[in-house]
Amino acid sequence: MSILSQFGKSVAKQLALTVLGGSRSSLENPSTTLSFPAEWLVDAWTGNRSDSGIRVSEITALQVSTVFACVNRIATSVATLPLNVYEHLAAKDLRASKRLAFDHDLFDLLHYGPNPEMTSRTWRIAIQAHMLLWGNGYSEIQRDKAMRPVAVWPRNPAKIRPVRVSNAIVYKTTEGEGASDPTAQDGSERIIEADNVLHIPGLTIDGRIGLAAVQLARQVLGLALASEKFGNKLFANYGRPGGVLLHPGQLSPEARENIKDTWQQAQSGENSHKVALLEEGLQWKDVSNKPNEAQFLETRQFQRAEICSIFGVPPHMIGDPDKQNRANTEQLGLEFVTFTLQPWLVAWEQELKRKLFPNRGRNANKFFAMFDPRRLTMPDATSRKGFYIAGKQWGFLSTNDIREMEHLNPIDDDDADALWIPLNMAKAGAQSNIQDDEDISGRSLKAFKRVFRDAFGRIVERRDPDSAAFKRAFLPVLLSIADLISRSTDDDEAEIEPAFLVSYIEEMRGRLPEWKKANGEADLVADSELGRAAKALRTEILRTIEERREAEQ
Prior knowledge:
Blueprint (H helix, E strand, L loop, with lengths): L2 H19 L17 H8 L1 E2 L5 E2 L1 H4 L3 H16 L2 E6 L9 E3 L4 H7 L8 H14 L2 E8 L5 E7 L4 E6 L2 E6 L16 E4 L3 E5 L11 H4 L1 H19 L6 E4 L6 H15 L15 E4 L9 H16 L17 H28 L10 E5 L9 H13 L5 H7 L14 E2 L4 E2 L9 H5 L4 H16 L5 H21 L10 H13 L1 H5 L5 H31 L1
Antiparallel strand pairs: 1-2, 3-4, 3-13, 5-6, 5-10, 7-8, 8-9, 11-12, 14-15
């Protein structure tokens, strides 16, 4: 909160008179001067005091390297993710689909620059930092006469607050409109309607105002600041810090100051560890704790981990070597996106949808904004290769889908957008030409069971059957099954290539060791192989029919 909003205009006027006049009395204690200001005045300027004696505010908290690293890591990660506008497409087979709405008026505003003075990255870094430090991120929406958003301006979280007026939420601020200089304000307060404010709170208990993480964690941050201050003093006064010089006699004030200044110049700062010369019976007595006795390094390490837990950032992502493990870095990166960034991304997306995209009218609920975090979850080349192979083979990724993920231009070919399935890669969208699929895969196969089991048994009984033995045993029965499937289609030219039968028989030969292990279950394994062969033959026949029809077109 600013001085104006916290204490009112009368306090601001009195404070201005104080600064101009050079001295004043505290509002709480008229005898308090500027040399010894009241506690409330110091808190207003420098933040609340922690038990360590260090005052902590949102700005001083950034002096803690871990706080700066955590805020910078989260804010820059959110800022570098593509923020796109999408359009809901008409539902197809009850499945939602979307497209990138490059032509939408808000696409450039959110993706590239929210206003003429800053990029989208700069705006998002500022708002995300406000959310992490102050607990609230505010942006004012500038609209044209048709009430369409034309710009979005960040607002200082210390100079704006939500208030309830006549059962409605409005926002009061002391900042000017648009791009006016916030440092050149006349102190007047203005009201912004809630529809024109993007307000993204952090952790909140009333649903309106987010809690400031810095103030809630000021004890932790105060200890971190105190540790850094101790370390700085340690190296600045390393002549022998925290000790006294003893003299056997009585010194005059001038001599006392002389000895003190001489010792400081000779033994502090860059002169530390130099040889000291003590004269006139002077002796050094150490009266301080050693850094190792105070567990100085352990305290700093613990504070780093504790601050990381407050912001939800894995320690290795801010350069903590003790918490880094190359074996699981990829998994830790996924956890960072899932548990650290995703809650903030959802908060952004929901507030943008609520304030920028109408839920009524012709385009009601048709457009929305969404981040694309795929860049942060992109695995290494070997892992991507395995994922793409599985996606292409099992029919949930097309060639153009894979090229898009690799940021390559699509191929202008219908087959590049087609989905494929296993067993010699038939198109997943191919329609079945079999008139009675249940009969072919069920009752009609019973006629081949005895013949197939006989061929299966003869092969299993042989010690090491070669390819010719497999062909003699299985080729006749497979040809009969293929002929039955071909006659059940509505295509008179449906047939199967002999080369496919030969290759499939070799595939069956590769499973011979598994067949031989089927102790007492040979009939079950044979029936399973029969059904498997029927499905493979049916898929191949459908593929040949589809390819021939496409060639004819």
